[in-house]
Amino acid sequence: MSVSTRAGPGSQPSAVARRTSIDCDDTHLTRASFTRGLVLGLALAPMFAGAQARAPRVGILSFGTVPTGANPDPVEGFGGQVLREFGYVEGQNIVVERRYADGRPDRLAALAAELVQLKVDVILAGGPAPLEAARKATTTIPIVVVGGSDPIHEGWAKSLARPGGNVTGLTVSFPELGPKHLELLKQAQPGISRVAVVLEILPDDDFMNELQAGARRLGLQLQVLKISGPGDIDAAFLLARQHRAEAIYAIPTNVVVSNRERLATLAMKDRLSSISGFPMMAQAGFLLSYGADLGDLIRRSVVYVDKILKGARPGDLAIERPAKFQLIVNLKTAKTLGITIPQSVLVRADEVIQ
Fold first, then answer.
1. Residues 288 and 298 both lie in one domain
2. On the chain, which terminus has fewer CB atoms closer than 10 Å, C or N?
3. How remote is the C-alpha of 313 from its chain's centroid?
């Protein structure tokens, strides 16, 4: 005996047929919902992508003026090709907020506060004064400094290998560099015996001990002249004249660097040989400059910034000393002073300004 499963013309569909019909309807609804969800998701994707892929912000805090061709700034090189070497294009996948104090220390605190309010991801501080302002403005935002001589003595690092806290970066001077400056000055003008040391911040004991020891070896007497701002410069040169100084050694801190042209002009007026660090000092009229290659320092500062933006903690990044140095001789200044620079100095120069 057989049983037919086919429904007759007026009969109701079987349970299997009803279930198949419902399944087909559900499939249709599911596909329609998926399609609508996909369209909506594609429409909202740029919005969510923009929110999740916020370009990192780097704040630059400089003591100097807005850079020009004739007046470069130590941190001017943070951008352009240097950033592109690390995969960053300013305005596309990184934002750089620059703040310049125009040589006025009283402006630094407000500028540092601006960068904190902008919620930058890292601050690049160009020298001791910007570093101090940035440290007072934040204890959480990472800070990379290009400047300073003794991070431990200055209180922003527990050690060079592991500074701790929210600050790391590069030093630009250290005890051994002072005697080298005096040695170059003596080689350029062997007859000098009295040197005025112009500085903004009294260096630590190690630096001064090394400097005094180097002076004794070279037969030089040192006169320390402290300047806290531009208003102290004329008085410092008056004291140098009274003590019959024959040369000046300007330790390149923020006030010295931002007033380099004025210092060079006064030195030439008083017929004093002059030396400092950083290429821009000789370019501004100093007789000699010997110090860290600023282009290399800025490139290395980008390494720090890049590591921090990728999750590294500043307190775990070792503080570095300069790796490249430049000696620059300004023969225009030598001519003004009536000095003939020995060939032994000229052949070692990385640049000679004619």
1. no
2. N
3. 17
